[in-house]
Amino acid sequence: MLATMGQCMPLSPTPPQEPERRKLAGFLRRRKQFVEARKAEKLRRHSAGHPEILRDIDSLIALFDRRIAKLDKRIAAIIAASPQLKEQARLLSQVPGIGPTVLATLLGELPELAHLDRRRIASLAGLAPHARESGTWKGARRIWGGRRKVREALYIAALTATRRVPALIALRDRMRAAGKAPKTILIAAARQLLVILNAMIRHRQTIRL
Predict the structure, then answer these.
(1) Where are the domains of the chain?
(2) What pTM value is reported for the model?
(3) Which of 2, 21, 158, 185 is the most buried (most CB within 10 A)?
(4) What is the sign of the dihedral through the CA atoms of 147, 148, 153 and 157?
């Protein structure tokens, strides 16, 4: 059945990910593991109950801080060593809200950036609304699926971009005036930000924001 589908549908092969991006994605996963572990220790700190336990937790948090800082340097070195990643990083970092962690996440977890149109790249990141229908019933369109790490990174970037990028400020203000919920506005801003970044990498130039 799968072979028949491949013959009938206009499918294009997915190119293998470059070694540099695979390496970058691996270090990003390790960084996230440390961040989650540090977050858990910080939560445990509130219920330590004993000074000795508190000191032990604090020493572990400090260890995670050092390891995360070390990984940040390694991630930056991987990007700097690749001409393609370095050039893409130069372009993306000019956009307000695209800090080092968001930048590395986009480069490592979204290699399709610049290779897909605006609708497909938004869907891949889990930022495109999809219909919810069954027979004659039609529900509200919602976002679902996609790459959670990329979506979360774009949410963080959109929080800053909607205060500094004129196009996104205008989008935010229009949606607020229309009575849209804050989460809906954030999703729309993150999606539009991704469209801007996608175009920048595709055309290899900064877009007037």
Answers:
(1) 19-81, 96-129+145-209
(2) 0.81
(3) 158
(4) positive
